[in-house]
Every structure is written in structure tokens, then in C-alpha cells.
């Protein structure tokens, strides 16, 4: 196959890479037997400067027909973006995620600083550590959390810490469902701030990995839930599939109908969220 360029969500051009496609569908736990079939199907649709979003949609369409549970996992990033339109459900989601990792959490609280009061998206406590967590939610691909975000979160953390006793270790932590700019990462590293983005840091600590490791899938990943179902659940601050599965009275109130309810239960079972 001759060299072909794609257009990323950021507007950048890069070479089309079958290796990246394989990595993406491997993360979605799509069996090897489907990999070449995905690539073959893609080849019939590719053209010069095709947007990566279109490639994503083509893969989703193929997996829906061929390996549905793989498509559910594959669309995880998009599902997180569908938690909007406001950023509050993402804050609730991060609060639940950190709780699953052993933190005590409070979402959307106001705290006094040395100079002014501050709204803290999530207060996370574990052992002797306390983190002031900022959640930067974006509902579009290609948007990065930049240096301005890191600067104001650091300044707010300094003001909050100045008001608190010295019996604990305090820190600032930023979560985003997209990426951080290079300057934002450099400043955060210099100031010992924690950053967690969709694929940052690499390996075990990225947001994607934290979600997948403990099957902390958002309700927006399920095809069995309609837009109205999602809206009603988010109004009740129910953001995790696991949480919904554990609340049969809640999902019964959605009046799904027998067939949809069976589809819902099957999706949850396939995702490992029915434990």
C-alpha cells in the first residue's frame, strides 16, 4: 500500500499507520482473527487526507456487525465525550474512578483559601495524601488542556495549601479526557503536579488504562440506553455501568422493555460489569 496521509482531530497531517489501527483494536480486546478483516475493510474506504474521525467511524461500523463487544470498548473515548454537555458528569465520573482506586472523594465542594474561596471539582484523600483535583472535560477531539489550565490550578492549590495545617501531604491533580500541551506537561513536572490525560502518562496511569483495568465504563458506552435513558441517569449522577448494574430499581424505572433489557444485561455481562 502506498503512503497515505490522514488528518488528525488537531488538524495535523500524519502517515496512515496500520500498526496504530492494530494497537487501537487490541486495546478494545478485539481478537487477532478480526485484525486483518478490519484492515481489509478499511482499505476499501481510505483516501488521501481522510480524517481520523472517519477512520474511527468505519472501524466502529465494522465491529458493530462483526464483534459488537469490541466496538463498545473501542468507542470508549467517544463515550466519555458523550457525558456532557456540561462538565459535571465528568467530575462525578472521576470521583467514582478515584474511589475505585482507594481514595475517599468529595465532588464539587467549596474550600477556603488564604485569599479567596475556591471551588474544587474533586477532593481526593488516601492515607496521608490529599489532592485538589481539577477535571477538564472536552466534548470535541483535538482540544488540549494547555499551560493556562496548569498555571491557574497550581495557583489555586498554593492558596488552598496556605490555609491548611501541615499534618498531611497536599497536591494538585488534573484529569482531562483529551490531551495536555507540551508546555502544560513541562510545567506540571517542574511543579510536581499530577496530570492524567486520555493517554498520559503512558502505560498504567493514563485515564484510558485506569478505566479499562477496573472495567469502569461510563453508561454512555452502552448501545442499549437511549439518549433519554442517559439523560435521566446523569440527572441522578449515575455515570458508571457498574453503578447502574448494582441498582436494579434504577434501571427498571427506565422502562426499557424486555428485549432492550436483555440487550442491556448482555452488554454489561460482556464488559465484565455485572460482577
Automatic annotation (TrEMBL):
The keyword ATP-binding applies. Pfam families: ATP-cone, Mrr_cat. PROSITE patterns: ATP_CONE (PS51161). The keyword Cytoplasm does not apply. Residues 4-85 form the ATP-cone domain. One of its GO terms (biological process) is DNA restriction-modification system. One of its GO terms (molecular function) is endonuclease activity. Keywords: ATP-binding, Nucleotide-binding. This is ATP-cone domain-containing protein. It comes from Candidatus Roizmanbacteria bacterium RIFOXYA1_FULL_41_12. The lineage of its organism: Bacteria, Candidatus Roizmaniibacteriota.
